[in-house]
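We both want to read discrete structure tokens more fluently, so let's practise on a single case. Would you supply a protein for us yourself, any chain you care to pick? Would you write everything just below, so we can both look at the same thing?
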Amino acid sequence: MVLLNTAWNHIRRSPYQTFAAVLIVLQTFFVITMFSLIIYVSSKTISYFESVPQVTAFFKNEVKQKDIDSLKKQIEEDGKASSVKFVSKNEALDIYKQQNKEDDPLLLELVTADILPASLEVSAIKIDDLPVISDMLKSSPLVQKVIYQKDVVTTLKAWTDALRKIGIAIVLVLALDSILIMVIIIGMKVSQKKEEIEVVRLLGATNWYVRWPFMFEGIGYGVFGALVGWLLSMGVLWYVTPFLYYFLKGIPVLPIDPLLLVGILGGELVLAVVLGVVSSFLAVLRYLK
């Protein structure tokens, strides 16, 4: 308790230094939380595109059902497709009418099942397998046309990978900045109390007894900064959620599981403690040699 009171007095008596330390830690954990959420949304979006039909193969009119069934079985046995769905001519007509139900009914009557092709809708287990599935369908003499949104899927995956790398780089830089700022601030306080520390050590205090108040101070900066940074990111998430619902229309990403948000906070608090301990330990180290 005495050590905690000492740490609190260190924090209370230097509000500007405390504000600077908390501010840089806050920025670090705000960025960590936001990039974590961005990566989560991106991963869920990719998972969604992996679960819906990404490759559609339209058959020639003269193709027989047994040949279609044979091709369907071949794709299923290849092991790269998570689902393979056959859409008959009649089902294609129903889909067409549903998608164009607001058009002129007389025009819809002119469209019959005979002029619409049967098709296979294929979903891949992994997005990387989509080109293989697409090439397999294109090589079949039964298939007239293959629709494969290659550019959309490839771009999405590339953006997600780039965001992950950029996020890690930014977080590492900000974490290093946080450590350096806290080392400087706590080091200044240690320097100001150098004579007091020498007296305490002459009275028999151990090095760890001297360290602990400064380590608690560093942990306080880290934990408070992480908590405020997380709360700010939750405010941003709450504000942009309506826009995300509109932008991600049809993609089941929102609402984000509260347990995930709490898990992010828990991980950040652990990291904040580590940053605080490392920073304060380094700051005090030179004075206890």
Remarks:
- Residues 2-48+154-285 form one domain.
